[in-house]
Automatic annotation (TrEMBL):
This is histidine kinase. The chain crosses the membrane at residues 43-61, 73-99, 144-160, 172-192, 204-222. It is an enzyme of class 2 (transferase). Its EC number is 2.7.13.3. Residues 451-538 form the Histidine kinase/HSP90-like ATPase domain. CDD domains: HATPase_UhpB-NarQ-NarX-like (cd16917).
Length: 552
């Protein structure tokens, strides 16, 4: 809203309040002038004060509701004004003497709002208006005592100890009803037991004092509750450092039964943080559901006491805060997942390193070390053997086999062919593969760690094809797409490869993700296997992607 529009709106509201106040005050003075007790200041001044207090309280609450006409304060302001008008009307005509008790009891039953949702509340409000317009009902002291008890009990039941940010307001309504009922019962009892003339004026003064207290309490409660509820809720949820979103919302709204569900698209239902479904329909037992959307789609749901979130401003604040806080929770969950994946990857790399060292040790012991021991024994025997040339030939054979073992072992530690580039290394790898391979690659050079990882991806994939896949054709494609090197290995075998269960593929995943890349496998049964590794070529991108979990 432009500043000038806000100015004119505020000015219009102020003018209307002034007009209503002047009109109500004038009507009150005229009604007191028309009353038969106008010559007794001790009677008409307190009477005028009661009407003006209700009128002022209504205007004060109306200013609270001026911006948001859907606020419960709008109904409360109307009822306060109705009490003031009907109070003054009782001075003009005797049948209107009890009219004010209709909107007054309506106010206490519906506070802090205008409408009641229960059948009991609607029945009591109807009874209040009927009793107010039929003077003999409240005019009978015995009936007045019975009605007072009924309405105090009804307000207590209507505002039973419950939950929510409006709990304090409902409790205030119960106290106000109790005070009003007590003064009505006391006045009726006094008139029944004491001389009527002596009891009338003290009972009237006590009644007027209680009425003024009710008006002030109602206005002060709404004046404090509406902006404070929203502000306190946002501050409390914004400062939450521990616990769950559900706990924070339950505490802020005062509803320990509150449930929070998040939309799970794949299951088409709301679930709580533990994954259990959250029922949103049908709801009973005084519960209601508030749905929170994000990007025009379902995001979360709050299942809560139906008595809370009746204020649209509060409901909007809860939805906005839930959306913001839940998004933060989702981000935190993603970071925790990445941290867990990083920790698991590091553990696997550590275990894989230990296993690889043990494998190399065992291979050296069984291969090169054993051959060297046998060669030494052969040379010793050759020194004392007359057939030395034959023994030396066997020793030469042992040494030749040992050299071959060491060369093969060295090739496994670091591909020697990579010295001439990834293209030549893959060409040599393809030549040694027993299955025909169609290779498409490039002669460009890439960072050493990228070339090594790409080579091992191809080597592991081709080894798996040779072991498990009855395939007739394998294709290997290495191509640069923007700032990423894409390695694709595809075969026409039986498929069914599992990225999770295969230890070799898990090791490749760790190696690829260490560089900030991704490894995906598409292997439907009976339709072959397609493995794609994407490796970032930019150094900063590799570092930021690989260290995401640690930096967070």
């Amino acid at each position: 809203m432009p500043p000038y529009a806000a100015f004119w709106t505020a000015a219009h509201v102020r003018r209307r309040e002034i007009v209503i106040g002047l009109a109500g005050g004038t009507f009150g003075v005229l009604s007191e002038h028309a009353a038969i007790v106008r010559g007794q200041p001790g009677v008409w001044l307190p009477d005028l004060a009661v009407g003006l207090v209700f009128l002022g309280a209504g205007l004060l609450v109306r200013r609270t509701a001026a911006v948001d006409t859907a606020s419960p304060a709008t109904g409360t302001a109307t009822l306060l004004g109705a009490v003031a008008v009907t109070w003054f009307a009782g001075n003009i005509a005797w049948p209107a003497l009890y009219w004010h008790r209709g909107p007054l009891l309506h106010l206490l039953l519906a506070y802090p709002g205008w409408r009641v949702s229960s059948r009991l509340g609607r029945l009591l409000i109807s009874l209040a208006y009927v009793a107010a317009v039929v003077p003999p009902i409240w005019g009978s002291d015995a009936v007045a005592i019975a009605l007072s008890i009924v309405f105090v009990a009804g307000v207590t039941v209507q505002h039973r100890p419950g939950t929510g940010t409006a709990h304090g307001a409902r409790r205030a309504a119960v106290w106000a009803a109790g005070a009003l009922g007590a003064v009505l019962i006391a006045g009726a009892a006094a008139r029944m037991t004491v001389t009527a003339g002596a009891a009338v004026l003290p009972a009237l003064w006590a009644y007027q004092v209680v009425l003024c207290a009710v008006a002030v309490g109602v206005a002060a409660g709404l004046r404090r509750s509406r902006p404070a509820k929203v502000a306190d809720l946002v501050v409390e949820l914004g400062e939450t450092r521990s616990g769950t979103l559900r706990d924070a919302l339950a505490h802020a709204l005062g509803d320990p039964t509150l449930q929070v569900g998040f939309w799970l698209a794949e299951r088409h239902q709301y679930v709580d943080p533990a994954g259990s479904p959250v029922a949103v329909q049908p709801l009973g037992g005084g519960q209601a559901a508030t749905f929170v959307t994000r990007n025009d789609g379902p995001f979360a749901v709050l299942v809560h006491d139906a008595a809370i979130l009746t204020d649209p401003a509060l409901a909007k604040a809860v939805a906005d805060t839930t959306r913001l806080t839940a998004s933060h929770v989702v981000l935190q969950a993603e970071v925790r997942v990445r941290l867990a994946e990083l920790a698991a990857s590091r553990r696997r790399l550590l275990v894989a390193g230990d296993d690889e060292r043990q494998r190399i040790e065992q291979r050296l012991r069984d291969g090169a070390h054993g051959r060297l021991v046998r060669t030494m024994a052969t040379l010793r025997s050759a020194a004392a053997d007359t057939e030395a040339p034959e023994a030396l030939g066997r020793a030469y054979g042992h040494l030749d086999g040992t050299l071959a073992d060491l060369q093969e072992l060295a090739r496994g530690l670091h591909p020697r062919e990579l010295a001439n580039g990834l293209g030549d290394a893959l060409a040599a790898l393809v030549e040694r593969n027993p299955t025909p391979v169609r290779l498409t690659t490039t002669n460009r050079r890439y960072p050493p760690e990228v070339e090594v990882t790409a080579y091992y991806v191809c080597a592991e994939a081709l080894a798996n094809v040779a072991k498990y896949a009855a395939t007739s054709q394998v294709t290997v494609e290495v191509a640069q797409r923007n700032d990423r090197l894409c390695v694709t290995i595809a075969d026409d075998g039986p498929g069914g490869a599992d990225l999770v269960r295969g230890s070799g593929l898990i090791g490749l995943t760790d190696r690829v993700e260490t560089l900030g890349g991704t490894l995906t496998v598409h292997s439907p049964p009976g339709a072959g296997t397609r493995l794609v590794a994407e490796l970032p070529l930019d150094t900063e991108q590799r570092i930021s992607s690989a260290d995401f979990g640690r930096k967070q």
